[in-house]
Fold:
Amino acid sequence: MSLRRCVKVLLVIVVLVITGGAYQLLADWHDARRFPQYGKLIQAGPIKLNLDCSGQGGRTVILDIGTGLAREWQLVQPEVAKVARVCSYDRAGSGWSEPGPEPRTSSQIATELKTLLDAAGEKGPYILVGHSIAGLHARSFAGKFPQEVAGMVLVDGASEDDDRLKLPDAVQKRQDRQELVDRILTPIEIHFGIERLLVAGGWADRRKIIEPNWNVDAFRLSPEAVEELFYLDRRASHRHELARENALFYESSGQVRTRGAFGDKPLIVLTAGRPVPVPFLHEPLVTKPEEGAAVWINELQGALVRLSTRGKQIVVPDSDHMIPFERPDAVISAIREVLAAQ
Structure:
């Protein structure tokens, strides 16, 4: 290829990069105007975290979902607010919250939540609701601040013994390669507007881009709500924060393992009865689904029930890992039951 042709190709690439970046910036600006902030920023130590509280009376319920995005509680929080004070929050780096300091372990995240609630003037002891990896964060909070916890609901919460469910080496290597590719390409695709262009051109389904393993069609969300989740979930800062948190999953598991049990505090463990491949929880079930599901439901989730002498497990047979979307009524009912047990 001649030098002149190389220069032309380079110029085309530069133009495409600049155009894609500008397109993404304008689209983000437009989305920020379409989807205003829920809650308010609170100075929580060195960072500002977004806290969204509603309702009054009785114990305050704290909602924390696996992805760290408060808006993913939108089918649960309004109903809980009818009977109690309830707060959801964006973990550091997600939603409208600022990025947090290293290390992004459950212990660090629990400390940030305590600082946030104190700064906001919220009063404990709280009912903690932790979904997925946020189950580890809730348990770490209970271990560090036991007097601040009155009860807990774990929604298909992560287990510190997840490593019992192993993938075959070949499958694990393939998964590791895919995760590495995703970590490299996702920020590029987001920053330069590639994903938006794919959706706008009709070459990709926005619902699948949000999270390929989620059954978004079963989430009872309006098209506008799906658009909002696309905006929040695919921001580079959010994806970076999730990667930092997930990279320390087993360190967080070790921290939680030493925190101990909850005594006689009311605890409900909601367990997905229809496991699907989801990172950090159900991916190992792809090898022998029936055996893996039995271990997950009966043994790993069963062990969480025994954290309290008043522990109770409820298997949600018609939901996968995303119970807050697929069966929000089950989460609401469990919260009400724990509230009534006070």
